[in-house]
Specification:
Keywords: Cell membrane, Membrane, Transmembrane, Transmembrane helix. It holds the Pfam family Virul_fac_BrkB. It is found in: Cell membrane. This protein is mostly helical and about 400 residues long. The protein folds into 2 domains: about 300 residues, no CATH class; about 40 residues. It has 15 helices and no strands. It is elongated and about 135 Å long. The N and C termini lie far apart (about 105 Å).
Length: about 400
């Protein structure tokens, strides 16, 4: 029994060490810079993504209630305690409200126009998913091997699934008590279903967020993970980090930040960029936690995963094409070098600095040293001879 308890404690300790190692890997892989690059693509994808979301809600006949729900969620994120918005928070809220009203006005039209606009907006939004896949490839230490004609439709499909999940969750959460009452009457639960409905909204939203993160972590990188896990240490870490960063950032905005006073009307946009950056940091940390737990499982089975996790690639076609292209470039460079009088026997892999480094010739140095020694000895003997002659 003592050995079993000791083994359990050891396994728990090994699992706990995955979190600090993920934090160290975050800085080793320049996680702050990666989050900044993802923030660029997120800001570019945010506006077409909201346009697609509003268009789909318009198609479902819930654009006004959906817009109102988005603003309520944003207000809850900026003011978790329910206090009145001030300063940068109010500035950002006003910008979001004006922007959503403009999108809702532009999203109206015929069914064909809404569908085509949604497809174009979703294609633009998928650029962030593609960038997220590249970032995860760097974390896994692999190269992208899927060709564009294969990878981009896959990322577009993932974007569509994520957007559909967002629309379904919003449609559930913007449903009024009358709708819940009607469903309760259909199911035979009556008024009790309204209470269950209200209590079930936050857990359902959490499940949707976990599923979206699982889709990003599993399908975007060019590696085949052991299995799809919507509830994993990485997804839970990302959700917790997102919640804590949102809480801390809202407190910072309400008490310390002065972006609106310093930058004027663009202060709200600066706040948006900073919030996106913090969110991407949380997503990267969640991905690294998943990687460390995969590494731990492989190390326990004896696999050599101390430096890189051993996972098969989804596709290596593009890698082979890039290697062939690099080889052709090297051959072309070799031909140019030989055409201009280069040594055909010289290896191209030789350090180029060695070709321009002057060769040290040993014989002239020895000859100069010997001549210096002979002159010095001759002058010393001549001096001694003069002194003896003066004494005599």
């Amino acid at each position: 029994m003592p050995n079993i308890h000791r083994l359990k404690k050891q396994r728990i300790w090994e699992a706990v060490t995955c979190f600090p190692r993920a934090a160290r890997e975050f800085f080793r892989n320049d996680g702050l810079d990666t989050a900044a690059s993802l923030t660029f693509f997120m800001v570019l994808a945010l506006f077409p993504g909201l346009l697609a979301l509003i268009s789909l809600l318009t198609f479902a006949g819930a654009s006004e209630s959906g817009t109102r729900w988005i603003l309520e969620v944003l207000q809850l994120a900026l003011a978790p305690n329910g206090e009145a918005l001030t300063g940068e928070s109010k500035e950002l809220m006003d910008i979001a409200e004006q922007f959503l009203d403009t999108l809702a006005a532009n999203a109206s039209g015929t069914t064909l126009a809404i569908v085509l606009g949604s497809i174009g907006a979703l294609w633009s939004t998928s650029a962030y998913v593609v960038a997220f896949g590249r970032a995860l490839n760097r974390l896994y230490g692999v190269r992208e091997g899927r060709p564009q004609w294969k990878r981009r439709p896959q990322m577009f499909l993932i974007t569509v699934i994520i957007m559909v999940l967002a629309v379904v969750s919003m449609a559930l959460f913007i449903a009024t008590g009358t709708v819940a009452q009607g469903l309760g009457n259909i199911l035979g639960l009556g008024d009790s279903f309204v209470t269950i409905w209200n209590w079930g909204k936050p857990p359902a939203l959490l499940v949707v967020f976990l599923l979206i993160l699982a889709l990003l972590y599993y399908y975007t990188p060019n590696v085949k993970r052991p299995k799809f896990q919507w509830f994993s240490p990485g997804t839970v870490t990302a959700i917790c980090a997102l919640g804590l960063s949102s809480l801390g950032f809202s407190i910072y905005l309400s008490r310390f930040a002065t972006y609106s006073a310093t930058y004027g009307t663009i202060g709200g946009l600066i706040v948006l960029v900073l919030a996106s950056w913090l969110g991407n940091i949380a997503l990267i940390m969640g991905a690294l936690v998943d990687i460390e737990f995969i590494r731990l499982k492989q190390l326990r089975t004896g696999m050599p995963s101390a430096e890189e996790v051993q996972l098969p690639l989804r596709d290596s076609t593009l890698i082979a094409k890039k290697n062939l292209s690099n080889y052709k470039d090297l051959v072309q460079a070799q031909e140019i070098r030989l055409r201009h009088g280069g040594d055909p026997l010289q290896d191209m892999a030789v350090d180029p600095r060695a070709a321009i480094r002057p060769k040290t010739k040993v014989f002239p140095i020895i000859l100069a040293s010997a001549a210096t020694w002979a002159v010095t000895r001759w002058s010393s003997r001549r001096g001694l001879g003069r002194r003896r002659g003066e004494r005599d």
